[in-house]
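step: validate -> pass
step: tokenize input -> pass
step: predict -> running
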Amino acid sequence: MTAWTAAELDRIDGTDELDVAPLESDGTLRPPTTIWVVREGDDLYVRSWRGTGGAWYQAARSTHAGRITSSGLAKDVTFTEETDPVVNHRVDAAYRSKYSRYSNYVAPMVADGARATTLRLQPR
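step: predict -> pass
step: emit ->
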């Protein structure tokens, strides 16, 4: 498995948003969706604000592959479902800390519906 470089982690973590384009079942990339991203240690995580009904999330969960773009960096990634409650609590804390100025939007991102969609991004 490939790991993120420190420069990549810092670059992506230093921005509020990234564009995520999961692969469709036919191997083409979906149109990008702009979402929030958080860093926990040496890993990056995303969630679907719409919960499991989010179209980008459904595609990511189906194919487990796609591309992200953030701050001029484009990277092919693998999406891995994160179910560890300890990690998810840390991801909650990362969302609260990074996006505290958007309090109306943070609450849904740390609620059960969004938490159930936590995906770890791994570079391919």
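step: describe -> The chain has a mean pLDDT of 95.
step: cleanup -> pass
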